[in-house]
């Protein structure tokens, strides 16, 4: 681990509530703050709709944040001009969930990897080809794949190309948006091991977005738990799985299947549906589904409290 690389301060991403903006805005991400150290792998977990993917897209400025600051190596990232957007792309890249739709079907593998270099006017034709071949080999494919097209590849091979393309500009941080969720289990393990080896080789930092807690437990150094656009808990990987504090985190961990019929999972169960981010409950966002709720939970949003060793949780009952 190294110095602080990325710092997110009070990030908000709101969407217009209607055609005439009379309705309440949809609060996809509502005032979150966290930091990522160089060389670290930070997992962001939560149910569908919690805001984890929106957070990743906002960090890379594929979605424009409504408010808040995103600092990279101490400098604020801004995407107002084309040059500013290009500078962000050199530092931060994305690996998408769907390897099929994220690749242009008309581009060969070599062209897909060379495209970022073309956009940024880096190198001549020979140098770009050499770089593409180098990355094809680095992600475990053969030089023969240079002229292949996405439809000729398996899902795992396409995801390897997505990883190679993300590496083409030598970024310092890569946001991984559920990069293995669409793959078979055996292929998932291969891709995760590949990403770990590439992290060491290229000194990469990852933000790993996933709903699969066992994968996050295996892959990440730190875990951020999100619910309804808020961070409800954040801690070191070993700490958060050994000693979860927030009721929502406990329920998520208890939902992990146990491959032993003699063992029984924990009793924490999440009941009810996730509230609408357009009309979130007052106070604690988890108050409508929490079994430990007290009147105070519906009146005031609990702040993230430090329980030692950087273990933060937002709950009045602990």
Keywords:
Rossmann fold; alpha/beta; about 325 residues; eight-stranded mixed sheet
3D architecture notes:
The protein has 318 residues and is α/β, with parallel strands linked by helices. The protein has a single domain (4-313), classed as P-loop containing nucleotide triphosphate hydrolases (Rossmann fold, 3-Layer(aba) Sandwich), CATH 3.40.50.300. Helix content is 30%, strand content 21%. The protein has helices at residues 52-59, 82-91, 109-119, 125-138, 155-167, 185-202, 213-219, 237-242, 247-254, and strands at 4-15, 26-37, 41-45, 67-72, 75-76, 92-95, 173-177, 205-209, 222-227, 230-236, 305-306, 312-313. A hairpin with a 2-residue loop joins strand 4 and strand 5 (75-76). Helix 4 packs across helix 5. It is globular and about 65 Å long. 38% of the residues are buried.
